[in-house]
Amino acid sequence: MKNIMLTCVFAIAFSGVATSQSTSQKISGHLVDTVCAKGHATEPGYVENHTRMCNLMDGCIKSGYTLVLADKKMMELDSKGNELALELSKSSRKDKDFKVTVTGAVSGSKIAVSSIALN
Questions:
Q1: How confident is residue 15, by pLDDT bands cut at 50, 70 and 90?
Q2: 95 close to 51: Cβ distance less than 8 angstroms
């Protein structure tokens, strides 16, 4: 009986650990450099009109990148996400309206990015 109870306790404990880990999600929004997102993301029409050239300015690259959601909430990308966002900005022919889908693990207002794709 003691062994059965111990097994149940361990099973419950380990199931809690497994569910507390982040799982990968797909989230859509606009890709904006972090300095511009923090200063202007809530302005009507700003993220849709934010330009590729701005995403590629030195100061903007250094600030990293943010995903601005439809409700204007902001989610900062991790270092891999920043690299992928920069590659996407450099290779895209789009001038503005960088609506993307980011796949990654969400923790609070940050995303550990595994991929980014233009919509």
A1: very low
A2: yes
Residue 1 has pLDDT above 90, yes or no: no
Determine the Cα–Cα distance for residues 3 and 40; give it in Å rounded to an integer: 60
The answer to whether the beta carbons of residues 116 and 31 sit under 8 Å apart is yes
Assess contact for 109 and 74: CB atoms under 8 A.
yes
**For residue 79, what are its two tokens?**
């270092």
- 18 in Cβ contact with 56 (< 8 Å): no
Q: Is 75 within 8 Å of 110 (Cβ atoms)?
A: yes
72 or 20, which is more confident? 72
Name the β-bridge partners of 98: none
Q: What is the 3-state secondary structure (H, E, C) of the chain?
A: CHHHHHHHHHHHHHHHHHHHCCCEEEEEEEEEEHHHHHHHCCCCCHHHHCEHHHHCCHHHHHHCEEEECCCCCEEEECHHHHHHHHHHHHHCCCCECCEEEEEEEEECCEEEEEEEEEC
